[in-house]
Amino acid sequence: MKSRKKTTDKKIPAITALSVTGYKSIYNTRKIRIAPLTLLAGANSSGKSSFIQPLLLLKQTLEAPYDPGVLLLDGENVKITDIDQMLSNLGTGKKASEFSVRIELEDGSELISSYKKSKKTGLEIKAQEFIGNEQKGQASCYLRLDMSRQEIEENNPDLKRVLLSLSSKNKSQKYQLDIMRNRCFLSVNFLDSTGGILSVGLFGGHIRFIKKFIHLPGLRGNPERMYKTTAVEDVFPGRFENYVASIIYYWQINKDTEKLKELGTSLRTLGLTWTLQAKKKDDSRVEILVGRLSKAKKSGAKDLVSIADFGLGVSQILPVITALIVAEKNQTVYLEQPEIHLYPRAQAALALLLAKAAKRGVRVIVETHSSLLLRGVQTLIAKGELSPGDVALHWFSRNKDDGETEIVSADLDENGAFGDWPEDFDDVMLDADGAYLDAVEKW
User: Could you tell me what percentage of the chain is helix, strand and coil, using 3-state DSSP and rounding each to the nearest 5?
Assistant: First the structure.
């Protein structure tokens, strides 16, 4: 099991906004603010998962052990087998031949990546635009793979200045500009007469953000009697649930009491179990043992069972808790339906864990169907335990005429209020209660 280490000394830039165009049901450009705690709510198939999938496509492309081309479509985080499956086609004349994603970071930089369907190659990078923060010395650029040197210089004055600077330092050397594909990104190379190449790093902050992105899907696998050992570092390629057993075992052998205490406290907060242990069986497998009871009792340390013999709730929420604890400041954790298999009280209490990670500086994006989880967040704001400015709430729905995704973003006030609930939440519960009372009264 590899020890945990920093893969880079550079700071992870936090994401502040995300825009998507032409992807699945998101035909027109839709933009959301990404806060420390970002909640995506709405009906099934309204576009919540689709909105984040372009980021996951970039993630799995960068993580592939081989060059999969422009985008790895069928991977660990997103599974697409045909380009047409991800391009908007609303059947009303709204059919896209390209899609784009715009990522805005807290350092003021923005990256707009556009990908198009091609008859020759299947999928191509149409263009990439990097908007840098001049005050921080970030050069802006606009790139297409087919741009000539003249077009590069005309559209990219910052790159032209770099070229002139190189030429002035060595007047006998002539430099050419060339654009090359580096998986899902474009890179600019300066080629000298000897064939030497000097690459210009343009998307460093965005690449670090994408590589550090932690993803937990809604279905986090069945509980296993043994889990494969993994490396424990500060990046987690693929799906995060694969790393959980090794992470907990690593905390134990390194006596990381702070993280182990946080893990135990979180499990007790949700009322699931009072203790949990990871036990190494051999060089390739780790076992997870869970305390049968929700509270500690005398000799309870011996009263442990395999997680495979416990309820599904623990196996599904354990990766969520572990991700929230292991994530660093500014690192993004994307959770799809973290409340799955949790009973109502635990769903409401889950808001405490999400808020704690957000207040520590982690960027937490939650796709949820739980009104209890949302109410828990509101309650924390009303109690003054969470700032309303640190929460972004986005309602997703689909246009009744053509099925296009529509997003309504709400600003929460100091009481945690944000206006009317969507019809699929509180109104449904009230209607159900009313129908039950009517039925009791009638019969």
Answer: 35, 25, 40
Per domain, the residue ranges of the chain are: 6-139+204-212+328-443, 143-201, 222-327
Look up the pTM and report it. Answer: 0.92
Q: Is 341 left (phi over 0), alpha (psi -120 to 50) or beta?
A: left
The CA angle 188-194-199, to the nearest 5 degrees, is 20
Q: What is d(CA 128, CA 386) in angstroms, rounded to the nearest whole number?
A: 37
Burial of 115 (0-12, 13-18, 19+ CB in 10 A): buried
Give the confidence band of 8 by pLDDT, cuts at 50, 70, 90: very low
pLDDT digit string (tens) for 367-385?
999 999 999 999 999 999 9
The length of the chain, given as a count of residues: 443
Looking at domain 6-139+204-212+328-443, which CATH architecture does it have? 3-Layer(aba) Sandwich (3.40)
What is the pLDDT of the chain when averaged over all its residues? 89
Are 43 and 369 within 8 A, CB to CB? no
| pLDDT reading at 168 higher than 70 | no
| Backbone torsions φ then ψ of 345, nearest 5 degrees | -60, -40
Q: Other C-beta atoms within 10 Å of 347: how many?
A: 22
Chain-centroid distance, C-alpha 132: 23
H helices within 106-148, ranges in order? none
Q: How far apart are CA 351 and CA 249, in angstroms?
A: 26
* Residue 57 reports pLDDT greater than 70: yes
Query: Is there a contact between 126 and 96 (Cβ–Cβ < 8 Å)?
Result: no
Beta bridge partners of 305: 290
φ/ψ of 185, rounded to 5, equals -125, 160
pLDDT tens-place string over residues 323-343: 999 999 999 999 999 999 999
